Structures are given as structure tokens and as C-alpha cells.
């Protein structure tokens, strides 16, 4: 593969391209990297490559004419190359893009400097690429990341041919943990399974750890995948990432308990708390919690191949376990004060109401994901359950028409829970 970089600072590339595996790959010409300096095409006596912006304002803009000549020279040197412009507005680079670019005959990487380039430069390239949502002083460091990711995928670059396919992201998942000697380091030991020689068991452990890690750290990646039943089953026994989330709701009728527990199970909450409006329904509400833990899910029908049915039953069992975990942690309270005492130290989010500082579902979801697993949050639903005078209480915001009376009862909570935790 032939790579040409259009840059005012070719010297920045010297050491990154000469060290390590990348240096070696370039030395044996798995790919070649050349440079075109736009300054060589500047025609005025100061050799200017930038100019002040039309309309005024701070900073300088790269001139389209010199960049155009530089890009044309790069295209001539690397016939058939795909031309990329590095900028924060581009599509975000990822491993799939690396794989796609790795099979091109050539690449031209155009690096901007200053505040940016004249808008008409975009017409001269095939694609705009960003390496992440941050701003660099120039495109060079972004170009180096792309060169590294693409060259390491050239055949023969990685000593061990299997290591590229075992990488993080190769199956759309993060990599499993790795260990080497010593077997005990500062009190932390190597997982037992890795010390034994059972390769099937090790493989199963690694697959499961990959799934766990991805669910905990990058749930956004999981949403993209088409997982098989085995993987889905394994995910069901992995906790939801981030902080504990409990539901707290006032109820008028015991029958609401069942539906609210169902929601808590679907969204993987840890527990549901109920405050009864009348003491007469308390015993019945407790009986509903009891019934929920008694494996009320109908077993799946044996309508498909044996292996699939076996897995469906395993998933069903795991789901049943989860329901009983939730039921065991759930409680009925006679008064709001009892609820508040039981959830002392938790951070409260109101899913209904009209007071307190509001926060959008996305920001709250990010907070839940970022919080430590020991933190406990409570999603409060219905009148009278929120703690009075807690300055940390926040209201889950939403558009007014979706948040008013049309969505009362369980359906209203379902809408809010899905906004907070759903994958859509
Ligand atoms: C650049 C104007 C280009 O900052 C970047 C960048 C960030 N992610 N990917 C690329 O490129 C340099 C800065 C300002 C154009």
C-alpha cells in the first residue's frame, strides 16, 4: 500500500514511523509513506499557505489553491488512492474503517493546521475522517493513528497471524483480560481456570469475560451486535453496568406491583419499593412480590432444534433467577418515611413531578453508567414517594406533552425507564 501525507510538518512523522512493529513493517515495505508539503506549491513571495478568514474573526484559514496542488501531486504519486481529510467533523474512525482502508491500493491523508481549511477543500477529497471528539492543533497526530491502524493490518505485519483477529473489536467486543507471571501480584491472583490446561474451558472463560467487559464498559458496542443464544445467555448473568438502580413507587392497588416488578426485571433494576396508599392492600402487595419470585414465567415451547431449545431453557432459568433476586430485594412500605429510611444514602431521580432541577435522560444515563457500582440511585414514581428537602433530588426531564397526564400508571413509567435505560 502506498500512503502519501499532505502536511506542513513531515518531520513530526519521523520517530512514530520508525519505531516498533510499525517501523519494521515500513522498513520491509508492507507499506510506503511519502510526504507532500503544501508550502512547495505556494506561489507568492512569502510562500503563504494560510490567509485571514472572509467575514473577519480570529485565526487563519488554509488556502484552497495550494492544498489543491498538493493533493493533486499526492494523487499522482499514489494512483487510485483514497483521499482522506482529517478533521473533527468527519466520520469517526474505528476498526471497521481501518479494515476497509487496509485493502485500498493507496491512501492520501490531508492534514489541516490553523483554524481549519477553506470550505472548498472538502470537494477535493473522497472522505472526511475524525479520530475522536476532540480538537488537535493539526491533523498530523490523527493521520499517524490511521497509518498505524491500517499498516498493522497489512498481511505479514503482525508476527502472530492470529493476533489481529483476536484483538479488541475484531468480533465487535472488547478483549478478555490477559495475565502472565507471577501467579500472585500484590495480593491479586491469576484466575484459576487459566492455570489449568483445559483449553475449551479457557476459551469459554475468555468469551464470557469479553462479553462482560463490553457490557460493563461499552454497552454501545453490544447494541450493534447480532449475538448468538450462548452469548445472550451469558449476558443475562452479567449485571447492568454502572450504579444500582431501585424503583420506588406509590401504589393504589396491589395489582400494580406485578407490572412494576416486571418493568424492574426488564430494565435490570436491583429492587422495587412500594408505598401503599391504604393499609388494607399491604398484605396483598406483599403476596404479589412473593408470587413474582415463584418462577411465574411460562417455559418456552420445544418448537425448534434440540440445541436451541436447551439454550432457551437455560435463558429462561436465568431470567427466573433474576426475577427472584429482584423479588427478594423488593419491599412494601406503609409510609414514605419507612421507604426513605430503607433507602438512606441513595441519590433520587424523580420520574414524575414538577419540582426540582431537571436533567435529561441521556445525561442521567451517562451519570448512572459512570457512577461506581456501589452507588445507589432511586427512580421515584408517583405522588408522595420523593424525600422532602433532599437537595440532591433531580427531576427526569422530557418533552412536556410526553410527560403529562396521558402517560399515567405503569405505561408512563415504562416510557421514562426506556428513555433512561433503553437502547433506542
Ligand atoms: C484539525 C481543523 C483539522 O483536530 C483534528 C481531529 C480531531 N479528530 N480527528 C481529527 O484534526 C486537526 C483541526 C482543526 C481541521
Question: In terms of structural class, how would the helical and strand content be classed?
Answer: alpha/beta
CATH superfamily of the largest domain: SPOUT methyltransferase, trefoil knot domain
* Secondary structure tally, helices: 16
Sheet with most strands: strand arrangement: 12-11-10-15-13-16-14
Percent helix among the residues? Answer: 25-40%
Tell me the fraction of residues in β-strands, as a range: 15-25%
- How confident overall, as mean pLDDT? 91
Oligomer: single chain
Q: What does the largest sheet look like? A: 7 strands, parallel
Please report the total strand number as a whole number. Answer: 16
Q: Roughly how many Å is the radius of gyration?
A: 29 Å
The span between the termini is 39 Å
- The global form is globular
State the CATH topology of the largest domain: Alpha/beta knot
Unreliable stretches (pLDDT < 50, length at least 5) are: none
Structural summary, described in words:
This protein is an alpha/beta fold and 424 residues long. The chain folds into two domains: 2-151, Alpha/beta knot (3-Layer(aba) Sandwich); 244-420, SPOUT methyltransferase, trefoil knot domain (Alpha/beta knot). The protein is built from 16 helices and 16 strands. It has helices at 20-27, 64-77, 95-102, 140-151, 163-166, 192-195, 199-217, 219-222, 229-236, 255-266, 282-293, 306-329, 336-342, 361-370, 400-403, 409-421; strands spanning 2-6, 32-36, 50-51, 61-62, 82-92, 106-111, 127-130, 184-185, 188-189, 244-251, 271-276, 331-333, 347-350, 358-359, 376-381, 394-396. The protein has a seven-stranded parallel sheet. It is globular, with a radius of gyration of 29 Å. The protein starts with a strand and ends with a helix. Bound molecules: (phenylmethyl) 1~{H}-pyrazole-4-carboxylate. The site of (phenylmethyl) 1~{H}-pyrazole-4-carboxylate has 14 residues, from β5. (phenylmethyl) 1~{H}-pyrazole-4-carboxylate binds at residues 86-88, 112, 116, 130-132, 134-136, 138-139, 142.
Amino acid at each position: 500500500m502506498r500512503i502519501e501525507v499532505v502536511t506542513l510538518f513531515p518531520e513530526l512523522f519521523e520517530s512514530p514511523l520508525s519505531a516498533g512493529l510499525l517501523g519494521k513493517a515500513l522498513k520491509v515495505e508492507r507499506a510506503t509513506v511519502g510526504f507532500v508539503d503544501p508550502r512547495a506549491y505556494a506561489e507568492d513571495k512569502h510562500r503563504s499557505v494560510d490567509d485571514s478568514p472572509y467575514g473577519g474573526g480570529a485565526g487563519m484559514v488554509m488556502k484552497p489553491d495550494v492544498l489543491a496542488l498538493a493533493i493533486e501531486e499526492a494523487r499522482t504519486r499514489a494512483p487510485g488512492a483514497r483521499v482522506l481529510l482529517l478533521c473533527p467533523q468527519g466520520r469517526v474512525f474505528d476498526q471497521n474503517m481501518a479494515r476497509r482502508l487496509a485493502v485500498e491500493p493507496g491512501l492520501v491523508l490531508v492534514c489541516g493546521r490553523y483554524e481549519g481549511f477553506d470550505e472548498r477543500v472538502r470537494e477535493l477529497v473522497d472522505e472526511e475522517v475524525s479520530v475522536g471528539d476532540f480538537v488537535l492543533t493539526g491533523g498530523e497526530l490523527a493521520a499517524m493513528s490511521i497509518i498505524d491502524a491500517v499498516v498493522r493490518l497489512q498481511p505479514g505485519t503482525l508476527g502472530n497471524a492470529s493476533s489481529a483477529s483476536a484483538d479488541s473489536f475484531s468480533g465487535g467486543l472488547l478483549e478478555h483480560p490477559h495475565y502472565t507471571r507471577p501467579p500472585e501480584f500484590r495480593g491479586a491472583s491469576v484466575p484459576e481456570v487459566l492455570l489449568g490446561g483445559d483449553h475449551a474451558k479457557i476459551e469459554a472463560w475468555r468469551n464470557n469475560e469479553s462479553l462482560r467487559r463490553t457490557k460493563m464498559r461499552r454497552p454501545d458496542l453490544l447494541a450493534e451486535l447480532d449475538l448468538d443464544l450462548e452469548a445472550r445467555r451469558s449476558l443475562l448473568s452479567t449485571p447492568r453496568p454502572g450504579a444500582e438502580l431501585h424503583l420506588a413507587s406509590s401504589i393504589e392497588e396491589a395489582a400494580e406491583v406485578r407490572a412494576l416488578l416486571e418493568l424492574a426485571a426488564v430494565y435490570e433494576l436491583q429492587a422495587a419499593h412500594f408505598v401503599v396508599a391504604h393499609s388494607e392492600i399491604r398484605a396483598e402487595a406483599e403476596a404479589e412480590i412473593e408470587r413474582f419470585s415463584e418462577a411465574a414465567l411460562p417455559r418456552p415451547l420445544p418448537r425448534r432444534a434440540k440445541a436451541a431449545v436447551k439454550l432457551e431453557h437455560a435463558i429462561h432459568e436465568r431470567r427466573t433467577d433474576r426475577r427472584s433476586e429482584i423479588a427478594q430485594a423488593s419491599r412494601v412500605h406503609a409510609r414514605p418515611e419507612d421507604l426513605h429510611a430503607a433507602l438512606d444514602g441513595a441519590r433520587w431521580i424523580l420520574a414524575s413531578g414538577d419540582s426540582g432541577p431537571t436533567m435529561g435522560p441521556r445525561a442521567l444515563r451517562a451519570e448512572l453508567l459512570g457512577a461506581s457500582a456501589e452507588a445507589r440511585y432511586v427512580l421515584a414514581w408517583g405522588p408522595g414517594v420523593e424525600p422532602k428537602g433532599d437537595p440532591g433530588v433531580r427531576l427526569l426531564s422530557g418533552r412536556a406533552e410526553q410527560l403529562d397526564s396521558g402517560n399515567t400508571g405503569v405505561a408512563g413509567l415504562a416510557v421514562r425507564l426506556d428513555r433512561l435505560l433503553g437502547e433506542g
